[in-house]
Each structure stands twice: as structure tokens, then as C-alpha cells.
Amino acid sequence: MHKRHLHKIIILTAIILITLFGAYNEKINPHFSERIDFTDGLFYSCHLDVGQGDCSVVKLPDNRIIMIDTGLEDTFSKTEIFLKKNGIDKIDYLVASHPHSDHIGSMAKIVKNFEVGEIYMPKATSNTVLYENLLLAIKEKGLKIKTAAAGVSMISENGLTAYFAAPSVIDNDDHNNCSSILLIKYKNTGFLYTGDSEEKEEKTVTADISADVLKVAHHGSRTSNSDKFLDKVNPKYAVISCGADNSYGHPHYEVLKKLKDRNCKIFRTDETGTVIIKSNGEKILE
Ligand SMILES: [Zn+2]
């Protein structure tokens, strides 16, 4: 074969492969870039790939940042890279869903290394070193913890609200069910963040929690995500944050089936890495 023809074939093959790979990435995760555009005035809900843990970073249309959970202690560098890459040096609202290490593991480091506006935590207490270090970091920073509890409003502005639908009961022997459940509404779109709340806590929620996007509770565990709760939320999109091949078997088959039966589009951090979902206030953008 003529050398020039061979070159053409190689280049053409490369173009086809790059296009196919791009289309594949688009298919598995339409928000593959992991970048926030701070100039487009959109609402972003970013669910970071922190393995078997939870960490959501929300960029509000005016560029303020809400961070709900921070992942495990040893994934701090991943979280830090995401925040720095996106030029985030201040967390305006830092929320701990509950004191377990897969949610607050990196929170002391976040408090130490970033400017923090307000911090919200449920009134649950823990005697783990991680939790005590977090309290110490908060104290050293001169921050005062605000209580995340059912009925507490974090943001109440024209077209933008964030309020806690749970917890209403604190049991320090059952931290999953002390999880803060936070509903953020931007105009006509809603996002619900559930920590590790299980069916027991789901039953206590009386507020309107209907939302377009659900951060699925407890990494997709069957002990959470009851039919009644999912019916109340009625989400169009579900984000599951969990580690690949985790020992808990999360997300559980039953939960995936419930979501699929409800025509819910599912994004998983273990399959696609960080998941980013955007809203212009009227609808969720894909
Ligand atoms: Zn968890």
C-alpha cells in the first residue's frame, strides 16, 4: 500500500476511535468534564467520586457554594483537587449530614484549609477521633455550629430556598437516622440530599420534599429508599454515591429496580466518576 494512503487510514481510524470514545463518555456521563462554569449563572449539583462515601458540592447561580458532606478522610486530596481546579476557596454553607466517617471524614481538613461561612450539623454527638477533630477545627476557626433539624431554613431568598426536612429525632445509637435531609429549590427545580437516612427516619418527614433530583440515601441501601419516600420525592434523576465493588453490595438491586420502575434516570459515581447535574431554574439540563 502507498505510504500516503496508509497515513490517511491511520488518521481516519484515530478520528473514528476518538469520536466513538467521546460518544461513549457522553452516553455514560453527559457531565464528564467535572468542571463548573462560574459565568453561566446556572445551578450545579456536583456529586464527587469519593468511593464509598458522600460529598456533594452545589454551586448556586450567584456562585456561592454549599458543600454537603466531605467524603472519607483519605479522599480529601480528591475533594481538594476538585475544589481547587474549580477555583473554590470558600464554602459558604458547609453541611454535615451525620457524624459517620464516610460523610465527615475530610470535614476537619476542609474547615482548616478553606474559608467557611456557616456550618450546619444535626445535634447528634460522637466520640470518634474524626468527630472530635472536626469539633476542634471548628472551634479553632471561630465558627459556631448551627443546628440542622427539621424545619430549619438555611437559605430563604427570592427563587432560592434551602431547608431541612429532617432530623426531627436524635438517637446517638442510630446516627444514620439522625441524618440531615436538605431540600434545595432553585425556582422550579428541586434537589434533595438525604445523607444515610433510613426508612425509620423517612417516616418522620412531613415537609413537602418533592424534587427533580434525589441524592439517593445511604449509597442505595435497601434499608433506605422506601416506596412511600420515593413516591413523596418523585424524582426524575437519581444520584447514587458509592464505591466500586463495595463490601455492602451498594447500591442494592431492589433500590435500582424501584428507581427504574419510576422511570428515574440513574447516575452512579462508581460507574461514571463525579456526576454533575445542572439547572437553569426552569428545568434540569442534560
Ligand atoms: Zn454513608
Describe the protein's architecture and organization.
The structure is a single chain. By secondary structure, the protein is α/β, with parallel strands linked by helices. The chain folds into 2 domains: 1-30; 34-285, Ribonuclease Z/Hydroxyacylglutathione hydrolase-like (Metallo-beta-lactamase, Chain A), CATH 3.60.15.10. It is built from 9 helices and 15 strands. The protein has helices at residues 3-28, 76-85, 101-104, 107-113, 129-140, 199-202, 227-233, 253-261, 269-272; strands at residues 43-47, 56-59, 65-68, 90-95, 115-121, 145-147, 153-157, 160-166, 181-186, 189-193, 213-215, 237-240, 265-268, 275-279, 284-285. Strands 6-5-4-3-2-1-14-15 form an 8-stranded mixed sheet, with helices on one face. It has a 7-stranded mixed sheet with strand order 7-8-9-10-11-12-13. A hairpin with a 5-residue loop joins strand 2 and strand 3. Helix 4 packs parallel to helix 5. The longest helix is centred in the N-terminal third of the chain and has 26 residues, at 3-28. Residues 22-33 have low confidence and may be disordered.
